[in-house]
Amino acid sequence: MSFLEKYQNEFAEYDKLDHDFIDDDKIWAQLNKWENPSRGDVRSVLKKAEQCVRLDPEETAILLQNRDEATIQEMYELAHQLKEEVYGDRIVFFAPLYISDECANNCKYCGFRSSNKAVHRKTLSMDEIEQEVRVMIGEGQKRTVLVYGESPKTEADFICETIKKVYSVKTQHGEIRRANINCAPLTVDELKKLKAVGIGTFQVFQETYHHPTYREMHPEGTIKGHYRWRLYCMDRAQQAGVDDNGIGVLFGLYDWRFEVMGLLYHTIHLEETFNGVGPHTISFPRINPATGTPFSEHPEYAVSDSDFKKLVAVLRLSVPYTGMICTAREPEEVRREVLPLGVSQIDAGTRIGVGAYTQSKRANELPDKEQFSIGDSRTLDDVVKEICDMHCIPSFCTACYRAGRTGEQFMKVAKSRFVHNFCVPNAIFTLKEYLLDYASGKTRLRGEETLKQHIEQFKGEPVYDTILKNLKRIESGERDLRL
Ligand code: SAM
Ligand code: SF4
């Protein structure tokens, strides 16, 4: 049986549906209806958004179409306020680990696509994964997202082995405590296997929700060419008990306002189907230039920096309880600007080639196998310091997922606004570990100030003593303390 044939029966189920939950015409009708909203229209949506509730599509359309500078500023201020209310001033850190760039698909924008002869293909062996993880742990990473092309070499059983391998690597100070996955859509049975080995978030980006653009970007006859197989993969994840899911769009393939509406409709579909549980995270990468990939150099729908800022704020206002990830694809200046608008997770110290962590350690150079070029290549240490300079607290926390607070459980906690009672103390503990074990002198100094300011906030609260006690235990060598 060919790789593609394996999925043919599954595809047939989706082909029977007479429609899916993305209605291109309806989305355009909603955007066109609000082509020029008044200040009053925008402010009435902001009034609702203040309640920290998910917005309806027409309300999101109003914000997306707003071109009035004064109310755009109000949108930014409220987006910032909601992020602080729901997530506090924490920024969660992770780093990707590229496992394989072998891919049977031929996505027009990606350096890993099968027709790209400029890339020399590689899938890491278990020993090579161990080496990569050792370098990452040595730099202070605690959370990773494992990234795979879609090929017979990276099927579910292999993915499970890689996850187990990543968790098995322990060094003097640390280990990877949470491995998220960014791979191809899988079947329910395959997803059950991933759950059994303890995956964190299961990420699959739709890339574009616009049906004709999807067809143009992903050739027929490839697995990725099947729009609905991908669109419904989070439904299958929920059915498999994988309730911590990440959706996303690759911005630059089609009109950014349409894509934000697509993300919202996807969220609504999941919430309505799975008892209020929407995506755990939303990612919004913009296309970056990839080796041997002319399309990625000048995409027709490239999103400007100012529209990018707006889309981040609109997402935060529309889905206030969803984590938002801004990756190192973005240059540091852009990351600095969008962070206060609602971002809750970033990667840092990122290397995106297969084997890149080991290679850069050895040769102090960037690898030749990158999927695309990154915008922010600073070290983890530099970015940790900068986040402290921005009066936020870096967090390496993995407690919720390990305590089973995912899916519906997580939504209950998040929606009751108690997140900061668990999350800020856990951020304090994990930052303390980072400062003791990995930080440079200047980052340690700055980080200690951040810790002090955050500990102060708890004075008079029952958790204050526990925080102080745990910090003492960490100073005397204990690790991985959490609430
Ligand atoms: N192969 C799996 C898939 O396509 O879902 C997962 C790995 S793929 C390398 C991860 C993501 O990288 C894709 O979902 C896409 O959004 C993003 N990507 C692909 N080409 C890109 C480019 N030129 N610039 C930025 N991101 C890109
Ligand atoms: Fe393969 Fe994913 Fe790249 Fe498409 S985006 S070519 S599926 S690695």
In short:
Residues 87-321 form the Radical SAM core domain. With 483 residues, the protein is of the alpha/beta class.
Polypeptide structure, described:
The protein has 483 residues and is α/β, with parallel strands linked by helices. The chain has three domains: 5-20 and 89-378, TIM Barrel (Alpha-Beta Barrel); 24-81, no CATH class; 413-475, no CATH class. Helix content is 48%, strand content 8%. An eight-stranded parallel β-barrel has the order 1-2-3-4-5-6-7-8, surrounded by five helices. The mean pLDDT is 94.
Lateral arrangement of strands in the main beta sheet? 1-2-3-4-5-6-7-8
Global shape: globular
Distance between the first and last residues' Cα: 49 Å
What are the low-pLDDT stretches, counting only 5+ consecutive residues below 50?
A: none
Pfam families: BATS (PF06968), Radical_SAM (PF04055)
Protein name: [FeFe] hydrogenase H-cluster radical SAM maturase HydG
Domain Radical SAM core: 87-321
Keywords: 4Fe-4S, Iron, Iron-sulfur, Metal-binding, S-adenosyl-L-methionine
Short key terms for the protein model shown above:
eight-stranded parallel β-barrel, globular, 8% strand, 483 residues, alpha/beta, 4 iron, 4 sulfur cluster binding, binds iron/sulfur cluster, S-adenosyl-L-methionine, iron-sulfur, 3 domains, catalytic activity, metal-binding, TIM Barrel, binds S-adenosylmethionine
